[in-house]
Design a protein that fits this description.
mainly alpha, MetI-like fold, 11 helices, elongated
């Protein structure tokens, strides 16, 4: 007598939905204290810069309190002027708020200039290769051989004293960083399995580069742009400190505020202390957020 065999149905394992790179990075950022602190500082800086006309208690660059600022005496914090008076007789708090707007505009625009120009060069070098890659990389190497601040000083001095000169000078100094980073990321992605599969399917090289390699290579470049914003704000202050910034003293800018308070540092050290603290805290916020974003997008850091 034969006993019929009964086959038990195979237990189906629950399928786990896939997770994109940016969705996973967002989850890790929400759990990172460093990212939360950095993002809070950056958000506060942006809000202060955008809402400066609303938050400022007085008009910027007002000189109606010049009698309260002399070479031997500068009015300190009072109920009417919470942070005192600057050397030009303007409300210090008002100048700091409007200085945030100037630093934000110059920092963001200069970083965008460097990012766009560097991305174009990096895409051409990493996507085309050959003599184009060699030519672009040798040009980038020449730019990298010059310290970025020295290069920015040279360009700003040649273009003259203006906010536009600062944006172009700092942006050009950042171009080689983005170009080399994106080119290296694209070369790394070009050896991936999905690129080999696309080549096997007969897709055109331009389609593979623009639709597959480039989008997957932008992560490190975006992270670097966040970090470069902190550097750009510091370089804006440095160039203004050297007298290469906005020539109009009525336009508030943190770097020039440090310079203007130098000759009265013994009488009123807060004239240089307040804008210096603003620069340090803002740069710290962008650095913390950029480092947290770098770790969140790094596959080796995934838990």
């Amino acid at each position: 007598m034969t006993v019929p065999l009964t086959v038990s149905p195979t237990l189906a394992l629950p399928e786990e939905p896939g997770e994109s790179l940016w969705r996973g990075a967002w989850k890790r950022l929400r759990r990172s204290p460093m990212a939360i602190i950095g993002a809070s500082i950056v958000l506060l800086f942006v809000l202060v810069a955008l809402l400066a006309p609303v938050l400022a208690p007085y008009e910027p660059a007002s000189s109606e309190w010049t009698e309260l600022s002399t070479p031997t005496f500068v009015q300190g914090p009072t109920s009417e002027h919470l942070l005192g008076i600057d050397r030009w007789g303007s409300d210090m708090l008002t100048q700091l708020l409007y200085g945030a707007r100037q630093s934000l505009i110059i920092g963001v625009v200069s970083t965008l200039i460097g990012l766009i120009a560097g991305a174009v060069l990096g895409t051409l070098a990493g996507g085309l290769g050959g003599w184009v890659d060699t030519l672009i990389m040798r040009f980038v190497d020449i730019m990298l051989s010059i310290p970025s601040l020295l290069l920015a000083i040279s360009i700003a001095a040649a273009l003259g004293k203006s906010s536009y000169a600062l944006m172009i000078a700092i942006g050009v100094a950042q171009v080689p960083i983005f170009a080399r980073l994106l080119r290296g990321s694209m070369l790394s992605q070009s050896k991936s399995d999905y690129v080999l599969a696309a080549n096997a399917l007969g897709l055109h090289k331009r389609t593979i580069v623009m639709n597959h390699i480039l989008p997957n290579s932008l992560g490190p470049t975006i992270v670097q742009a966040t970090l470069n914003l902190a550097t750009a704000i510091i370089e804006v202050a440095a160039l203004s400190f050297l007298g290469l910034g906005q020539s109009d003293p009525a336009v508030a800018e943190w770097g020039r505020m440090i310079v203007s308070g130098q000759d009265r540092f013994l009488v009123a050290p807060w004239l240089s202390f307040y804008p210096g603290i603003c620069i340090a805290i803002t740069a710290l916020g962008f650095t913390l957020f950029g480092e947290a974003l770098r770790e969140a997008l790094d596959p080796k850091q995934r838990r």
